[in-house]
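Fold it.
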Amino acid sequence: MAHRKVNLKKILQLYGEKAATAARQALKENAEALAQAAREIAPVETGFYRGRQYKLKHPGRLRDSIHVEESGKKDTLLVVADAKDDKGFCYAPIIEYSPRGQPFMKPAYEAKKISMINHSMDLIRAAIRK
């Protein structure tokens, strides 16, 4: 069986602006859904840091910092967690990647990736059929 590699750009060129508009809409909606899923998973409790020198004075700051922003590249959005402590230190990567951390971005992505793909396909198919 032969496989052909077809990318989104080619599909959008074939099906026109309706499909491109639907793909952009799906991108925005999926980014917001991913941000919401990460907010739900992000650790909030102060006990997470108990026994360490680093203490959070504002529980929920990490959760509240998760948002979607434009990357500066066309049709590219980022889901960002940029919480900083009172000294200006961004601690989100420590919580996501340290051995004692509590990942929240990757598990949110893993939980949402199939539904985001399906949502994108549904919106693009609907736009093509119109």
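The CA atoms of residues 85 and 91 lie 7 Å apart.
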